[in-house]
What we know:
Layout: E1 2-8, H1 15-24, E2 31-35, H2 47-53, H3 57-68, E3 71-76, H4 85-95, E4 104-111, H5 119-128, E5 134-142, H6 145-148, E6 149-150, E7 155-156, H7 159-170
Amino acid sequence: MKIVAFAASSSRQSINKKLVSYAAGLVDGADVDVLDLNDYELPLFSEDKEKELGQPQLAHDFLAKIAEADGLVVSFAEHNGTYSAAYKNLFDWCSRIKKIYQNKPIVMLSTSPGGRGGASVLEQAVKSAAFFDGEVAGSLAVPSFYDHFDQEQGRITDKSLNAKLLTEMAKLRL
């Protein structure tokens, strides 16, 4: 099974990238490709820019990575209750080419330092996925990241939370 995973964040120290990397690694035997949104940085989307530039190669490259996958794992950073600008911009460019999720099963995650763990952005992502040909297999908001994730070992330390994540990740195989 080929899994493409990414954090919907451009932060080089993204806690969502740490979470998505750990989560994707929980799928036994999977070939995991963790993407970095910084490798797909594009000008701010507008119809004027699209007329000027056409459809950028980086947007096509990102969609090609998704096309190669059997399943996706995405962890959403929450910026002011919604998507990060970096993710939304890439999403906007890609959506002009094709439906971004390409009928792939997805486990959608989020985390933050706060007690809701990015639940607002995760709820938006889950609710809208079907409009972009996404099949949400599972979802989980991981609260209080720094209290529940050992960054040195790269894993969730809370047994109950880790069990929930394992349950959600197993849904990629169903």
